[in-house]
Design brief:
With about 280 residues, this protein is α/β, with parallel strands linked by helices. It has two domains: about 70 residues, Alpha-Beta Plaits, CATH 3.30.70.260; about 210 residues, Rossmann fold (3-Layer(aba) Sandwich), CATH 3.40.50.1000. Strands 8-7-6-5-9-10-11 form a seven-stranded mixed beta sheet, sandwiched between helices. The longest helix is centred in the C-terminal third of the chain and has 15 residues. The model has no long low-confidence stretch (mean pLDDT about 95).
Amino acid sequence: MSKKLVLQGPGVDQAALARIAALAAPARTTELHAHALRCDGVDFTPELKAAVDAAAFAAGVDAAFVDAHLTLADFGLVAMDMDSTLITIECIDEIADMQGLKPQVSAITEAAMRGELDFAESLQRRVALLEGLPVEALGRVYDERLRISPGGEAMLDAVRAAGLKTLLVSGGFTFFTERLRTRLALDYTHANVLEAEGGVLTGRVAGGIVDAGEKMRTVQRTCAELGIPTRRAIVMGDGANDLNMMGVSGLSVAFRAKPVVRAQASVALNFSGLDGLLAILG
C-alpha cells in the first residue's frame, strides 16, 4: 500500500530528515519547509512504520504515514481536547495550586490520563479538593498561567481558512472553554461546569460529567449537525480520556501524548507544535 510519509521536527535540518527518509525508500521527496520533508510513493508495511518511528523518535522527529492524497479539504471538523492539547496546562492542577494541593491533584490527573483511573471518579475526587476556593482564583489561572500550545493559533487559522469548523471538547471546565471560544473564534465548545455558591466553589460538578463517552458523543453530535460523517473529523488529544473520540475520527492526532494514546492514534506530534498538522495534510 502506497502512502506519503511526512517527517518534521523543530530544529532538525533537512540532512537529518533525509537520513530517516532513506529508510522508507520513497519514490520522491519534497522539502516542505526548513524542518519538514514529505516522502511520496512509500510502500507501507507495519515493519517499516516501526523502524521509521523508532529512528524518528530518537532524532526528535515526528513521522506520520498517511494516505497519499489526504489533505485538509477531506475534512470538515477539527475537534480538540483542551488541557495539555490546545493549551499547555492542566487547568485543574493549576486551580489546585491556589489551594496548595497541586501535588495531590496532579497525581490523580496523571493516573487518569494514563487510563489507570475512571475519569468521572477521578474528576469528582479532584474537584472535591477545591471546595471553598474563591471563584476569582479561576480568573488568575486563566490570566497568569494559561498559554496556547505552540502552533495552536497558526493551526486554527489554517483550518478555518480551509473551511473546517472547530470544536473544543474538554473534561475540564466551561470557565476556560468559553473564554477560549471567544479568544480563538472557536465554533463549538463543551466542558464541565464547576458549581459555585456565594462566590466560592462547592467542590462539585454541576450536571453530567464530560468523560470519554461524552467526548465521543459530542464529536458525533457536532458532525451530525454539520451533515458530515465522523470520518471527516480530525480529533486531537493527549490522554486516555480522548481515545473514544479519537477512535471515531478519520484522523486522530496524539499531541505530546501518553504512550497509550500514541500507540492508538493515526499520527503523533511528539516534538512539533499543533501546526505540524498542516505539514501532514498540506
